[in-house]
Amino acid sequence: MEKFYTDLAQELEKLHEQHLFRELKSVTGAPAEWVEMKGKRLLNLSSNNYLGIAGHPMLKTAAIQAVQQLGCSATAARLIVGNYELYDQVEKDLAQFKNTEAALMFNSGYSANVGIITALAGRGDIIISDKTNHASIIDGIRLSGAELLLYKHADMADLERCLKKAEGYRSKLIVTDSVFSMDGDLAPLPKIIELKEKYGAVLMIDEAHGSGIFGENGRGLAEFYGVSDRVEINMGTLGKAFGCSGAYVAGRQVLIDYLRNKARSFIFTTGLPPAVVASVQAAIQIVQQENWRRKEVLTKAAWVRDELVKAGFNLLNSESQIIPILVGDNAATLEFSSRLFDVNILVMAIRPPTVPLNAARLRLTVMATHSNEELAWAVKYLKHIGQELAII
Ligand SMILES: Cc1ncc(COP(=O)(O)O)c(C=O)c1O
């Protein structure tokens, strides 16, 4: 029995040696532009609360009222007795927001991706996936038992090569993040759609970081590119721009009926708590009504990117509110993050396996509600410390 624990300890020791050991950092206080950690007040450049609404009074009031009326739990799976009328209404709101026939909520983006992909593909099918897709997509593919072809990140010639290779399979599913979570760049959706139509494939997009931000109504990158109605499976999350928790898939009624019957991560789990679903309802309203938030976040992010590129940082191909600052080495990335912490700026280090080997980076995220002064102040320190550490 002791061997079990010494083996675990040895594995952890290896992680330490490679500067890959992970620890939880605890935040105190409400989610906002500034957070408290270890008694320090820090400018928060690490959250996915892009629109700055996670602590919005409308979300809080909706959640509190739901707790008072419905309690703290769905008490069962949605298909048993865990489906309040509120949930049906919020799914209608989500469908209306995405301009689709129907929508279905999942408890998280992770479980949505795993559930959707395993329901739609299995042995005899083939999935064609961008190499940089989120871990939840990768896990869904692995669990599905379908054949997998990876195409080079956002490389359309390589996608076409894969589509040619995929001839003869029962069904072909292309899956891609819309805004890539660790690189902040954009999937070339119009070209992907052209290819998927040419080769008769189905397309699933993960708008975890696109919805609420891109497109005139905040529906996501597909709206931005004007291709929403040519995407079969539109997945998005509710714990990022929406400031709540959970996820959804939107599309034709027949797709939603199918997933309600087949997606195991939807069927075999307790529904989201009523407080969360009520806050989602309020968030949908804010996202739709307060256009200024997405304009602010994108304008401010563009300014930060500009400044950092001029200073000589490598931001990969970021075009969004997610700004990677490539460092490469794990220890150097941790040092960069820790030096920023010392001056009250919170930018987390992202290391493998979240990103490829030798591609450790800071992942900086901008919120609509950061002030220009706060961002200018952070940029000043990023440049200063970046120079001291010889990153630029
Ligand atoms: C692209 C992408 N998809 C899915 C998820 C998972 O969403 P959730 O945090 O709701 O599980 C994330 C991040 O967490 C993500 O970045």
Please render the helix and strand layout as text:
Layout (H helix, E strand, L loop, with lengths): L1 H16 L9 E2 L5 E4 L2 E5 L12 H14 L14 H14 L3 E5 L2 H12 L5 E5 L4 H10 L2 E5 L4 H10 L6 E6 L11 H10 L3 E5 L14 H4 L8 E5 L9 E5 L1 H10 L1 H4 L6 H16 L1 H20 L11 E7 L1 H13 L2 E2 L2 E2 L9 E6 L6 H17 L4
Parallel strand pairs: 3-12, 5-6, 5-7, 7-8, 8-9
Antiparallel strand pairs: 1-2, 2-3, 4-10, 9-10, 11-14, 13-14
Helix pairs in contact: 2-11, 3-11, 4-5, 6-7, 12-14
Pyridoxal-5'-phosphate binds next to α4.
Could you describe the 3D structure shown?
It is a single chain. The longest helix is centred in the C-terminal third of the chain and has 20 residues, at 291-310. Helix 5 (135-144) links the parallel strand 5 (126-130) and strand 6 (147-151). The mean pLDDT is 97. The protein has two domains: 21-51 and 291-388, Alpha-Beta Complex (Aspartate Aminotransferase, domain 1); 57-289, Aspartate Aminotransferase, domain 2 (3-Layer(aba) Sandwich). The N and C termini lie far apart (50 Å). Helix 3 runs parallel beside helix 11 (274-289). The chain is an alpha/beta fold. It is 43% helix and 16% strand. The protein is globular and about 55 Å long. Pyridoxal-5'-phosphate binds next to helix 4.
